Amino acid sequence: xxxxxxxxxxxxxxxxxxxxxxxxxxxxxxxxxxxxxxxxxxxxxxxxxxxxxxxxxxxxxxxxxxxxxxxxxxxxxxxxxxxxxxxxxxxxxxxxxxxxxxxxxxxxxxxxxxxxxxxxxxxxxxxxxxxxxxxxxxxxxxxxxxxxxxxxxxxxxxxxxxxxxxxxxxxxxxxxxxxxxxxxxxxxxxxxxxxxxxxxxxxxxxxxxxxxxxxxxxxxxxxxxxxxxxxxxxxxxxxxxxxxxxxxxxxxxxxxxxxxxxxxxxxxxxxxxxx
Length: 275
What we know:
The protein has 275 residues and is α/β, with parallel strands linked by helices. Helices cover 38% and strands 17% of the residues. It has two domains: 5-228, 3-Layer(aba) Sandwich (Rossmann fold); 230-275, no CATH class.
């Protein structure tokens, strides 16, 4: 078993590299944690190992979207490491998805899979974004900006819950900068938008997509479509999304969510509007 080697050890950012002798580097990013208390453990992916790829794991001390006094120094290390590989890919969830796009230039990424990513959390850039107000107070909009640090030829996929308007808006803004990256809509998937897939035990398709296996895109969409009807969260999301224009559909969806939630808890009903 390959042992991770610390290749960057800053006060704010860390990066561990798992070398397996592969010619492809798969980069993974930390994600926002509500209970974050400093750096978390970085665990190598068994699926990346099985694919024969090296893995670079990037972690942050705070929920700062990897934008801090260590950002520029980490980018320099990434540029140096990248010379050892024929290709590089990245996978990130939410804040990690932002990291994948923000670091794409320094890693010379050829392909990105980002799950419910943000284009920024700076209020001046995304005034519609109200979920990360506390983190946005210390966010350096200039250092975090992707414009001028992006390659419009970058390939990849953004997975997004199309019923989640802020996430959909972020995805569309990212597509302006990265027009070769396509959007896969997973309505009612939540944030991140892969909750339905995870509940159905099909989240492994996300990694397959990140490895460049094109067939996984269609398989992922089909799996989501088949599984969503049995997930209360899907019906709750549909109810919220249709409340203004289709109150009849919203009511039916809310009732369906309540039935499914009650069945899952042995008949104890919960709040059908809770996220």
